[in-house]
Predict the 3D structure of the following.
Amino acid sequence: MASIAQSLLNGALIGCFYALIAVGFAMVLGVVRVFNMAHGEFVVIGAYVGYWLWSAFGVSPLLGIPPAMLLAAVIGWLTYRLIGRMGEPRGLNGLVVTFGLSILLQNVMIGAFSADYQLMSSGRLGDSLILG
């Protein structure tokens, strides 16, 4: 019974994470009117910043969230400024520019962090919580 509850909780948390990414994607599409192909890379950049802060400086993963969000937001804003210079209509041009940016960011991240999985562990985050 405990494994079912754990599976349900894990599924709900992963679903919330995906929903948060989708809300950001929908906001960009609604406001800028560009299908941002690099949106996933912004999420991954935030994750890598959190990983780098944890591995290089020993910062807790929870405390690494705000700087990771800030850097991803700055890169997103710079992308918006780049797309804003294109003028109207942005449709296909914005798609091609963000696709190229996606490829560029992927290769920068591979060069900086390698293509291997990176794992973070924190003693405080691994503790069990007993309810009831």
Q: What stands out?
A: The longest helix spans residues 2-32. The chain has a mean pLDDT of 84. Residues 2-113 form one domain.
